[in-house]
Design a protein that fits this description.
It is found in: Cell membrane. The chain contains eleven helices and 13 strands. The strands form three sheets. The chain has a six-stranded mixed beta sheet with strand order 5-6-7-3-8-9, with helices on both faces. Strands 11-12-10-13 form a four-stranded antiparallel beta sheet. Strands 2-1-4 form a three-stranded antiparallel beta sheet, covered by helices on one side. The chain binds adenosine-5'-triphosphate. The site of adenosine-5'-triphosphate has 16 residues, from strand 2 and helix 1.
């Protein structure tokens, strides 16, 4: 079943078309990552799905409901979880009290202790929220996103500010949630995070989806040429090599190969016959980041050179300020 279906989504702020006909689908049980440069339209799209913003056109279904409709919106608040930036929480409550209090907002919450363990905050359960580090606070945000046992969880840049170990821990938590049946839609600026977590990705730039697929196939990545690099052996000229290469850069020459196994065989046989090792030899497929940068570089430049647009022109203003409000609260 499809958890999120977006067709021809449009959103304008004044004259500025922030989202210009976006289509994508998130299947139930998958981790879906929405990627894109600053100002691409990710937050706007997510906020429309979360019911914080009204769209100007197109159709949106979240768990089969319309988040722009009042009654559907109320139903959705009990069935989705949100992990946003800067969630407002009581600074003088403890971690445990905060999670337990939020559990009370939902009809069938998860067990508070289970959630404390899930996000790795057992040692800090008695600590006041104001005394948590940035990364620990983000874990608490995650705990508050999952305490309602949502069918669908929205994660907005879930690991920004985490140390490398904490990021791995958070990825494990997200995978475990997916494996337990939660559908997850996230935004991230970290391509390694999208690679590690996402079953599907879509890249949005300039308000449009410019590519979608799996992390391994996005933008034809799986069929892209492999890049072989090595240092030109001392005493050898480029013309001596058994394969065509492009010029030395940082002391390395580069060959591109559709069939790297055969090309490497020719190259390494040549080197072994001459008795010269190939120093600094590497073989690489383009990374997700390489593909992403290729897809978005022109948009990133456009965005940087376009005039800045004042926020707050939306008919439902101050949504950013409202991002800290859990939907569950407003129905109580
Ligand atoms: P980032 O990665 O920087 O968070 P994003 O992809 O989430 O960016 P959005 O926040 O959706 O981008 O913004 C898309 C465009 O709409 C940008 O050009 C932004 O300036 C503009 N915009 C967003 N919110 C408003 C608003 N309330 N009023 C006016 N313009 C807005």
């Amino acid at each position: 079943m499809t958890a999120v279906a977006v067709d021809g989504l449009l959103k304008k702020y004044g004259d500025h078309e922030a989202v210009r006909g976006v289509d994508f689908a998130v299947e139930e049980g998958e981790i879906f990552a929405l990627l894109g440069p600053n100002g691409a339209g990710k937050t706007t799209t997510m906020e429309i799905l979360e019911g914080f913003r009204q769209r100007d056109g197109g159709s949106v279904r979240v768990l089969g409901r319309d988040p722009g409709d009042k009654a559907d919106g109320r139903w959705l608040r009990g069935h989705i979880g949100l992990v946003l930036q800067d969630i407002a929480v009581e600074p003088y409550l403890s971690v445990r009290e905060t999670i337990a209090r939020n559990a009370g907002y939902y009809p069938a919450p998860r067990d508070t202790d289970e959630v404390i363990d899930l996000v790795g905050l057992r040692e800090k359960e008695g600590a006041k929220v104001k005394d948590l580090s940035g990364g620990q606070k983000r874990r608490l945000d995650l705990a508050l996103g999952v305490i309602g046992d949502p069918r669908l969880l929205f994660l907005d840049e879930p690991t920004t500010g985490f140390d490398p170990g904490a990021r791995r821990g958070a990825w494990e938590v997200v995978r475990n949630l997916r494996d337990a049946g939660t559908t997850i839609m996230l935004t991230t600026h970290y391509m390694d995070e999208a690679q590690a977590l996402a079953d599907s990705v879509a890249v949005i730039a300039g308000g449009r989806i410019v590519a979608s697929g799996t992390p391994d196939t996005l933008g034809g990545r799986d069929s892209a040429l492999a890049r072989i690099r090595f240092a030109l052996p001392a005493g050898a000229a480029i013309g001596d090599l058994p394969i065509p290469v492009s010029d030395a850069e940082e002391g390395l020459v580069t060959a591109e190969a559709e069939e790297p196994t055969a090309v490497l065989h020719r190259l390494t046989s040549w080197a072994l016959e001459r008795g010269t090792p190939l120093e600094r030899l590497t073989v690489e497929q383009p990374t997700l980041e390489d593909v992403y940068l290729g897809l978005t570089s022109s948009y990133a430049q456009q965005d940087a050179s376009s005039p800045s647009i004042e926020r707050g022109q939306d008919p439902a203003p101050a949504v950013r300020g409202r991002r800290g409000r859990r939907p569950g609260r407003s129905s109580r």
